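User: My collaborator sent over this chain with a note saying "see what the structure looks like." That's all I know about it. Can you take a look?
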Amino acid sequence: MSRRTWVCAAALLGAALALVLASCRHPVAPKAPLRVVRPVTLVLKDDAGAPVIGAPLILVSGIDSAGVAPARSGVTQSGGRAVFSLRSGPWSASTGPLTIAGERRVVGGTFLVAYSDRDTRDTVLVALSLASPSRASGIVTLEDGADPAGTSVTSPELPYVATTTGEQGQWALADLPPGTWHFSFKRFAYWPATRTVIVPPGGASATVPAFALVAQRAGGTPYVAAQGAQTRR
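Assistant: Without extra context I'll predict from the sequence alone. Here is the result:
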């Protein structure tokens, strides 16, 4: 082999070694998980384990900072099953009050459609159960002393839940499933607020600490309020 050939081979070897060392210093970032659409089967059963047929379910995901969330709906069929095609991410499933065997019951739960590193079609199975309806209440005033009546109170995860505040700013919501839910408080010309409330099981009530909405002013910033709720039976 000629001297020139040896020089070329050494140059190529050096370049390859440099590429290997560079890749070690700057490893390739792992592929991000895919946001996929997967089949999801929800199964609703009563206290005795029998399927509940004909229950209307509302599914919500993607709650944003404005408290808006797109919803899907369906009805349980044979075997208490309702089948959806859902994108990856957190979801909540609920239904308004039902009368089962003469008793008022509600349904509510959360689940995750997992992200994946491949385009999977594996079915996600979610079990739901009936619960006795619980309650939540509190007081919302206005920091400028204006009449607080008429402030809207909703839960983006429980679309059937809504009310407005009374003359003293008091509000109450019934027929809530137990679990952790977000409540949104909105009024024109005031910064909206959100509370994360743990609704207890067994028909108990959650009391949300009183707070005030702050008026929107030029150059102002949104009001960030303390969260939390107290439980009483």
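A starting point for your reply to your collaborator: DSSP finds one helix and 15 strands in the chain.
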